[in-house]
Design brief:
Structural class: mainly alpha
Number of strands: 4
Mean pLDDT: 88
Radius of gyration: 20 Å
Strand content: under 5%
Oligomer: single chain
Low-confidence stretches: 1-20, 319-346
Largest sheet: 2 strands, parallel
Length: 346
């Protein structure tokens, strides 16, 4: 049934006129300018008179910048990857090196591996064996992290701690690409921190615990239920139809459409969805929410799913697992995710 649905969708989209990819995508350039402009105006002009409001706006800029980095790693807004990277090289979110984010996120786009605790770097699921080894307090935190309020409140802390410690192990283990990514990130941090401290006059610890943390919390709203387990890969990715946060997320609330069309620019996703709304929903098995308020009402203080994956990695299966050259990290932190040398043999 899955193959028939996928083929049907392919036939329909193939019959439509192809969207022309512009050499330079000016809407995205405009949003990059707006993002850095909002960040600078909030810090320089508003912080001295309205500090809390300014930090809140800077948090929006941090979340917005993360979405722009996501757009860039998928090949926008120009056809030159180096130019694209330079455009988002001022890391106002402080934590994640762009090249590490790109490396892990592109692995996440292997839809047949979505939600796998080992093979999907963005999975929030844990393997049963790993879960059983965790101390009780950590299990409690991870269970709370699977509610929306928990994800927003403690999710950024769990993510950052797990990510940083795992990256330290990776770099100290001799991973040259990871080391280069962090060196480039450090080069971007120097002017960023200098602007925050000397130009804006914001203590760095305040900036990190407010603008950066709140920005990660905003992104956590989007990522909370982006993926679930389904026997059908197409049923693993969500569609959130409308949201006032859609611009900040660059329409990634239509996440299933993005996964099926990962090179389509953000501003084309709504039209693609509208043109075949029923077909998109049929393809992903109805994993659809009208908006994020609907998700909040359902899962504010209740787990949407268990932390342990319901099907995968329930018992050791080395013959089916990736054979890694080294151990890597998860963007969600707190797990041992192998970075694959080559895909498994089915």
């Amino acid at each position: 049934m899955k193959n028939m649905e996928s083929e049907r969708h392919t036939d329909i989209t193939a019959s439509q006129p192809a969207r022309r990819r512009l050499g330079i995508e000016w809407p995205t350039i405009g949003l990059m300018t707006a993002c850095y402009g909002l960040w600078f105006i909030s810090g320089y002009y508003l912080f001295p008179v309205l500090p809390v409001f300014a930090l809140a706006l800077m948090a929006i800029a941090v979340a917005f910048h993360s979405s722009l980095q996501h757009e860039v790693l998928h090949g926008h807004p120009t056809r030159n990857g180096t130019i694209n990277e330079i455009m988002v090289s001022l890391p106002i979110g402080l934590v994640f090196p762009y090249r590490r984010y790109k490396h892990l996120h592109l692995k996440h786009h292997a839809d047949e591996r979505l939600t796998d605790p080992y093979d999907d770097p963005e999975s929030y699921y844990r393997a049963l064996g790993d879960w059983e080894k965790l101390p009780a307090p950590v299990r409690t935190l991870l269970n709370w992290n699977n509610s929306l309020v928990g994800r927003v409140v403690i999710g950024p802390a769990l993510m950052v701690i797990g990510f940083v410690f795992s990256e330290i192990k990776l770099v100290s283990g001799g991973d040259n690409k990871a080391r280069t990514a962090w060196l480039l990130h450090a080069a971007g941090l120097i002017p960023t921190l200098a602007i925050v401290w000397f130009v804006f006059g914001i203590p760095l610890w305040i900036y990190a615990l407010t603008a950066v943390y709140w920005g990660l919390s905003i992104i956590s709203i989007r990522s909370y239920c982006e993926h679930q387990w389904s026997e059908r890969p197409d049923g693993r990715t969500v569609i959130v139809e409308k949201s006032p946060l859609a611009l900040i997320f660059l329409n990634n609330n239509l996440h299933f459409v993005h996964h099926k069309k990962p090179t389509v620019p953000w501003y084309d996703l709504p039209q693609l969805y509208r043109e075949q709304r029923e077909e998109w929903q049929r393809m992903n098995g109805g994993y659809v929410f009208r908006n994020y308020f609907e998700i909040l009402r359902a899962y504010a203080f209740r787990k949407k799913q268990d932390v342990v994956h319901p099907v995968l990695r329930r018992e050791p299966a080395p013959a089916r697992a990736f054979r890694p050259r080294r151990h890597g990290i998860s963007l969600q932190g707190g797990s041992t995710v192998p970075i694959p040398a080559e895909p498994p043999t089915e």
